[in-house]
TrEMBL record:
Keywords: Copper, Metal-binding. One of its GO terms (molecular function) is copper ion binding. The lineage of its organism: Bacteria, Pseudomonadati, Pseudomonadota, Alphaproteobacteria, Hyphomicrobiales. SUPFAM superfamilies: Cupredoxins. The keyword Magnesium does not apply. It comes from Pseudorhodoplanes sinuspersici. It holds the Pfam family Copper-bind. Transmembrane segments: none annotated. This is Copper resistance protein.
Length: 159
């Protein structure tokens, strides 16, 4: 008969939990997949859509607030934070963004390293390349606590 050893059990549990942490080193906005399509290929042609993030008259906004694309189209989002505050651009379904916004309230300094999201300091620029493989309505939002509530949401319509 094999005897159980509490120390061996604890060491095994520690090894398994550390391997799980290594397999998922950061938070993913995609929740195991991406609701709005898939990461694009930066080496391929893409339509450029410039999106500005800023504060204006007590609101936080994206300009433009709406973008229309064709299913299968690849877009290079050229992002510019013209505001005085840090902002982020998170591309997903409304449902996924609402779930993630709740997580952000608990951990507002959460680091992001996802193909569908970019956080920018004031007066900085960034890019995100995305291929829209699914038809429907999606959104881009700033999920920093308070920003979404201040109006920082945009819509992508994929036809």
């Amino acid at each position: 008969m094999i005897k159980s050893c509490p120390i061996a059990f604890a060491v095994t549990a520690l090894i398994i939990s550390s391997q799980v942490a290594i397999a998922d080193p950061g938070h993913s906005h995609g929740y195991g997949g991406f609701s709005a399509g898939e990461p694009g290929n930066a080496k391929r042609a893409a339509r450029v859509v410039q999106v500005t993030m800023r504060e204006s008259d007590g609101k936080m906004v994206f300009v433009p607030e709406r973008v229309e694309v064709k299913r299968g189209e690849q877009i290079r989002f050229v992002l510019r934070n013209n505001g005085a505050l840090e902002h982020e651009f998170v591309l997903a379904s409304r449902e996924d963004n609402l779930k993630h916004a709740e997580e952000m309230k608990k951990n507002p300094e959460m680091e992001h390293d996802d193909p569908n999201a970019k956080r920018l300091q004031p007066r900085k620029r960034g890019e995100l390349v995305w291929r829209f493989t699914k038809a429907g309505e999606f959104e881009y939002g700033c999920l920093i606590p308070g920003h979404r509530e201040a109006g920082m949401i945009g819509t992508v319509v994929v036809k």
